[in-house]
Amino acid sequence: MTVHFIGAGPGAVDLLTLRARDLVAASPVCLYAGSLVPPEMLELCPPDARTVDTALMTLAEIVDEMVRAHEHGLDVARLASGDPSVFSAMAEQMRRLDAAGVPYDVTPGVPAYAAAAASLRRELTVPTVAQTVTLTRIAARATPMPEGESLEALGTAGGTLVLHLAVHRIDEVVKELAPSYGADCPAAVVAYASREHEIVLRGRLDDIAHAVHEAGIQRTAVIIVGPALAAEQFPDSHLYSDTRCRA
User: Is the pLDDT score of 138 beyond 70?
Assistant: First the structure.
């Protein structure tokens, strides 16, 4: 018996990896966050599978479900939105499974920021413009940020900044980033990336908050800030350059 932590991707079922699809189809138990994982993804589960919405459950209750499945010899598909390596709360679940002696593995998924960049039709790393992508969030009412990882501090590094779990505090985000990026820095917000009701907003730091409020976006969105979003005049990368030695 194994608990399979599975990246469910940004929402579109056809963005699941083949491995993820097969694991869900073979697992008698599926734990998922109903607020993030679309219902149609559960259609991949076996017809008689036990499906458990974890959206309102505590960590202890979630782990209890996994341990109970382990005791009955049942594999568990633990669906995490996007990719489980980022903001999935997987680490704390693994820690408890280790203590309980329950085996697990991890299947990566398409991260939300990648789906957002695809919708924007933009590369987040552009030659001489931005070669660093920072993935972060804000504290708000969630777990405190570590020392030195405030938006103000991260903004001074430049590059492309991607924020998860922060669109409900868009005004605060703009206020903290404007001093380092500038009010005219390109910015975008993509809500429900890859889904039928996807919303794509493009603008600048000085007007993106207004656009978010107008669209009524409160959750399930990625904020992207940085000059790479509007870069047009830049040199070709060395990767395909005529001058690159290919011997």
Answer: yes
Residue 238 is given by DSSP the state G
Say whether pLDDT at 116 is over 80: yes
Q: Please compute the mean of the pLDDT values over residues 88-101 and round it to a whole number.
A: 96
Both structure tokens of 7: 């990246």
- Residues 74 and 122: their CA atoms lie apart, in Å, by 42
Residue by residue, DSSP assigns 79-117 as EESB-TTSSS-HHHHHHHHHHHT--EEEE----HHHHHH
Checking 121-124 for CB contacts under 8 A at 24+ apart, the result is 122/188, 122/228, 122/229, 123/228, 124/160, 124/162, 124/224, 124/226, 124/228
Q: Could you identify the residue written with the tokens 């036990």?
A: 50
